Protein backbone atom coordinates (compact mmCIF):
# COMPACT_ATOMS: atom_id res chain seq x y z
CA UNK A 1 0.00 0.00 0.00
CA UNK A 2 2.85 2.38 0.83
CA UNK A 3 4.48 1.64 -2.52
CA UNK A 4 1.23 2.17 -4.43
CA UNK A 5 0.58 5.42 -2.56
CA UNK A 6 4.10 6.65 -3.35
CA UNK A 7 3.65 5.82 -7.03
CA UNK A 8 0.26 7.58 -7.08
CA UNK A 9 1.80 10.75 -5.66
CA UNK A 10 5.00 10.76 -7.73
CA UNK A 11 3.54 9.71 -11.08
CA UNK A 12 2.18 13.24 -11.48
CA UNK A 13 5.76 14.54 -11.62
CA UNK A 14 6.76 11.88 -14.14
CA UNK A 15 3.87 12.92 -16.38
CA UNK A 16 4.86 16.56 -15.90
CA UNK A 17 8.40 15.83 -17.08
CA UNK A 18 7.12 14.13 -20.23
CA UNK A 19 4.60 16.90 -20.91
CA UNK A 20 7.07 19.74 -20.55
CA UNK A 21 9.65 17.89 -22.66
CA UNK A 22 7.25 17.76 -25.61
CA UNK A 23 5.91 21.31 -25.30
CA UNK A 24 8.41 22.95 -27.69
CA UNK A 25 7.80 20.48 -30.54
CA UNK A 26 4.01 20.69 -30.18
CA UNK A 27 3.87 24.50 -30.03
CA UNK A 28 5.99 24.89 -33.15
CA UNK A 29 3.96 22.30 -35.07
CA UNK A 30 0.41 23.13 -33.96
CA UNK A 31 0.50 26.57 -32.33
CA UNK A 32 -0.05 27.58 -28.73
CA UNK A 33 -3.81 28.10 -28.86
CA UNK A 34 -4.53 24.72 -30.46
CA UNK A 35 -2.17 22.96 -28.02
CA UNK A 36 -3.94 24.60 -25.06
CA UNK A 37 -7.34 23.46 -26.38
CA UNK A 38 -6.20 19.86 -26.82
CA UNK A 39 -4.53 20.04 -23.43
CA UNK A 40 -7.87 21.06 -21.89
CA UNK A 41 -9.47 17.95 -23.38
CA UNK A 42 -6.68 15.81 -21.89
CA UNK A 43 -7.24 17.33 -18.44
CA UNK A 44 -11.03 16.83 -18.64
CA UNK A 45 -10.53 13.16 -19.58
CA UNK A 46 -8.06 12.73 -16.70
CA UNK A 47 -10.50 14.37 -14.26
CA UNK A 48 -13.34 12.11 -15.46
CA UNK A 49 -11.22 8.99 -15.01
CA UNK A 50 -10.24 9.94 -11.45
CA UNK A 51 -13.77 11.03 -10.59
CA UNK A 52 -15.18 7.64 -11.64
CA UNK A 53 -12.49 5.59 -9.86
CA UNK A 54 -14.56 5.05 -6.70
CA UNK A 55 -17.64 3.90 -8.61
CA UNK A 56 -15.49 1.54 -10.67
CA UNK A 57 -13.60 0.44 -7.51
CA UNK A 58 -10.31 0.82 -9.39
CA UNK A 59 -7.21 2.46 -7.92
CA UNK A 60 -5.56 1.96 -11.31
CA UNK A 61 -7.85 4.69 -12.66
CA UNK A 62 -6.40 7.11 -10.11
CA UNK A 63 -2.88 6.19 -11.26
CA UNK A 64 -3.81 6.73 -14.92
CA UNK A 65 -5.65 9.96 -14.16
CA UNK A 66 -2.77 11.36 -12.11
CA UNK A 67 -0.31 10.50 -14.88
CA UNK A 68 -2.50 12.24 -17.49
CA UNK A 69 -2.91 15.24 -15.16
CA UNK A 70 0.87 15.44 -14.90
CA UNK A 71 1.29 15.42 -18.68
CA UNK A 72 -1.38 18.11 -18.98
CA UNK A 73 0.22 20.29 -16.28
CA UNK A 74 3.68 19.84 -17.82
CA UNK A 75 2.33 21.04 -21.16
CA UNK A 76 0.22 23.82 -19.70
CA UNK A 77 2.83 25.67 -17.64
CA UNK A 78 5.19 26.69 -20.51
CA UNK A 79 2.31 27.00 -22.99
CA UNK A 80 0.28 29.29 -20.77
CA UNK A 81 3.22 31.56 -19.93
CA UNK A 82 4.18 31.88 -23.59
CA UNK A 83 0.65 32.46 -24.87
CA UNK A 84 -0.27 35.04 -22.22
CA UNK A 85 2.99 36.89 -22.78
CA UNK A 86 2.67 36.90 -26.57
CA UNK A 87 -0.94 38.13 -26.73
CA UNK A 88 -0.32 40.93 -24.20
CA UNK A 89 0.68 44.47 -25.24
CA UNK A 90 4.34 45.24 -24.60
CA UNK A 91 3.62 47.56 -21.64
CA UNK A 92 1.52 44.88 -19.89
CA UNK A 93 3.62 41.83 -20.80
CA UNK A 94 5.56 41.60 -17.55
CA UNK A 95 2.42 42.06 -15.48
CA UNK A 96 0.52 39.43 -17.49
CA UNK A 97 3.32 36.89 -17.07
CA UNK A 98 3.49 37.51 -13.32
CA UNK A 99 -0.25 36.83 -12.96
CA UNK A 100 0.39 33.26 -14.18
CA UNK A 101 2.57 32.55 -11.15
CA UNK A 102 0.04 34.24 -8.86
CA UNK A 103 -2.88 32.13 -10.07
CA UNK A 104 -0.71 28.99 -10.03
CA UNK A 105 -0.07 29.57 -6.31
CA UNK A 106 -3.70 30.55 -5.71
CA UNK A 107 -4.85 27.32 -7.32
CA UNK A 108 -2.59 25.31 -5.01
CA UNK A 109 -4.02 27.14 -1.99
CA UNK A 110 -7.62 26.53 -3.12
CA UNK A 111 -6.79 22.86 -3.66
CA UNK A 112 -5.29 22.53 -0.17
CA UNK A 113 -8.32 24.21 1.41
CA UNK A 114 -10.83 22.19 -0.63
CA UNK A 115 -9.05 18.98 0.40
CA UNK A 116 -9.90 19.44 4.09
CA UNK A 117 -12.11 16.72 5.57
CA UNK A 118 -14.78 19.31 6.38
CA UNK A 119 -15.08 20.22 2.68
CA UNK A 120 -14.36 17.89 -0.27
CA UNK A 121 -11.79 15.70 1.48
CA UNK A 122 -14.42 13.54 3.16
CA UNK A 123 -14.84 9.83 2.50
CA UNK A 124 -17.87 10.42 0.28
CA UNK A 125 -16.74 13.53 -1.63
CA UNK A 126 -13.08 12.84 -2.46
CA UNK A 127 -13.89 11.64 -6.03
CA UNK A 128 -15.45 15.05 -6.65
CA UNK A 129 -12.29 16.67 -5.31
CA UNK A 130 -10.11 14.68 -7.71
CA UNK A 131 -12.41 15.51 -10.62
CA UNK A 132 -12.43 19.23 -9.79
CA UNK A 133 -9.22 19.79 -11.80
CA UNK A 134 -11.37 19.42 -14.91
CA UNK A 135 -13.44 22.53 -14.11
CA UNK A 136 -10.78 25.17 -15.00
CA UNK A 137 -9.95 23.15 -18.14
CA UNK A 138 -13.63 23.15 -19.12
CA UNK A 139 -13.88 26.94 -18.63
CA UNK A 140 -10.80 27.49 -20.79
CA UNK A 141 -12.07 25.04 -23.42
CA UNK A 142 -15.29 27.08 -23.75
CA UNK A 143 -13.69 30.56 -23.71
CA UNK A 144 -10.37 30.10 -25.54
CA UNK A 145 -11.88 29.63 -29.04
CA UNK A 146 -12.92 33.31 -28.90
CA UNK A 147 -9.25 34.33 -28.65
CA UNK A 148 -6.93 34.46 -31.68
CA UNK A 149 -3.74 32.51 -32.15
CA UNK A 150 -0.54 34.09 -30.83
CA UNK A 151 0.56 36.89 -33.24
CA UNK A 152 4.30 35.96 -33.01
CA UNK A 153 3.46 32.33 -33.88
CA UNK A 154 1.41 33.41 -36.92
CA UNK A 155 4.19 35.64 -38.20
CA UNK A 156 7.34 33.73 -37.20
CA UNK A 157 6.28 30.13 -37.83
CA UNK A 158 3.43 30.44 -40.32
CA UNK A 159 4.58 33.53 -42.21
CA UNK A 160 1.01 34.83 -42.09
CA UNK A 161 1.46 38.61 -41.83
CA UNK A 162 -2.22 39.41 -42.48
CA UNK A 163 -3.32 36.88 -39.87
CA UNK A 164 -0.84 38.40 -37.41
CA UNK A 165 -2.23 41.91 -38.01
CA UNK A 166 -5.81 40.65 -37.62
CA UNK A 167 -4.93 38.89 -34.33
CA UNK A 168 -3.21 42.03 -33.01
CA UNK A 169 -6.24 44.19 -33.85
CA UNK A 170 -8.56 41.69 -32.18
CA UNK A 171 -6.41 41.63 -29.04
CA UNK A 172 -5.27 45.24 -28.73
CA UNK A 173 -7.93 47.11 -30.68
CA UNK A 174 -7.74 49.19 -33.84
CA UNK A 175 -4.70 51.36 -34.23
CA UNK A 176 -1.18 51.53 -35.60
CA UNK A 177 0.70 48.44 -34.38
CA UNK A 178 3.57 48.45 -36.86
CA UNK A 179 6.12 48.82 -34.04
CA UNK A 180 5.00 45.53 -32.48
CA UNK A 181 5.11 43.78 -35.87
CA UNK A 182 8.63 45.14 -36.46
CA UNK A 183 9.69 43.75 -33.06
CA UNK A 184 8.39 40.30 -34.03
CA UNK A 185 10.24 40.49 -37.35
CA UNK A 186 13.47 41.41 -35.53
CA UNK A 187 12.99 38.44 -33.20
CA UNK A 188 12.41 36.17 -36.21
CA UNK A 189 15.64 37.40 -37.82
CA UNK A 190 17.53 36.83 -34.56
CA UNK A 191 16.16 33.29 -34.20
CA UNK A 192 17.43 32.35 -37.68
CA UNK A 193 21.00 32.99 -36.52
CA UNK A 194 20.54 31.37 -33.11
CA UNK A 195 21.17 27.69 -32.51
CA UNK A 196 18.60 25.88 -30.39
CA UNK A 197 20.53 24.19 -27.57
CA UNK A 198 19.76 20.78 -26.16
CA UNK A 199 19.64 20.32 -22.38
CA UNK A 200 23.18 18.88 -22.33
CA UNK A 201 24.52 21.73 -24.51
CA UNK A 202 22.78 24.27 -22.27
CA UNK A 203 24.51 22.81 -19.20
CA UNK A 204 27.88 23.04 -20.94
CA UNK A 205 27.39 26.58 -22.25
CA UNK A 206 29.35 28.97 -20.03
CA UNK A 207 27.37 32.05 -21.13
CA UNK A 208 24.26 30.69 -19.41
CA UNK A 209 26.02 29.16 -16.40
CA UNK A 210 24.89 31.72 -13.79
CA UNK A 211 21.31 31.85 -15.08
CA UNK A 212 21.19 28.06 -14.88
CA UNK A 213 22.55 28.11 -11.32
CA UNK A 214 19.89 30.63 -10.28
CA UNK A 215 17.04 28.60 -11.79
CA UNK A 216 18.25 25.37 -10.18
CA UNK A 217 18.64 27.02 -6.76
CA UNK A 218 15.23 28.69 -6.92
CA UNK A 219 13.48 25.51 -8.06
CA UNK A 220 15.24 23.39 -5.43
CA UNK A 221 14.52 25.77 -2.54
CA UNK A 222 10.82 25.92 -3.44
CA UNK A 223 10.70 22.23 -2.51
CA UNK A 224 12.10 23.11 0.93
CA UNK A 225 9.45 25.73 1.73
CA UNK A 226 7.20 23.18 3.48
CA UNK A 227 4.42 22.83 0.89
CA UNK A 228 5.04 19.08 0.52
CA UNK A 229 4.91 18.64 4.29
CA UNK A 230 1.60 20.54 4.38
TrEMBL record:
Transmembrane segments: 6-26, 125-147, 210-229
Entry annotated with the keyword NAD: no
Pfam family, one: Sugar_tr
One GO term describing the cellular component: plasma membrane
GO molecular function: D-glucose transmembrane transporter activity
Cellular localization per UniProt: Membrane
Record-annotated Major facilitator superfamily (MFS) profile domain positions: 1-230
Keywords from the named record: Membrane, Sugar transport, Transmembrane, Transmembrane helix, Transport
UniProt KW Transport keyword: yes
Biological process annotations from GO: D-glucose import; dehydroascorbic acid transport
Main location as per UniProt: membrane
UniProt membrane topology term: Multi-pass membrane protein
Protein name: Solute carrier family 2, facilitated glucose transporter member 5
UniProt organism field: Aptenodytes forsteri
Source taxonomy: Eukaryota, Metazoa, Chordata, Craniata, Vertebrata
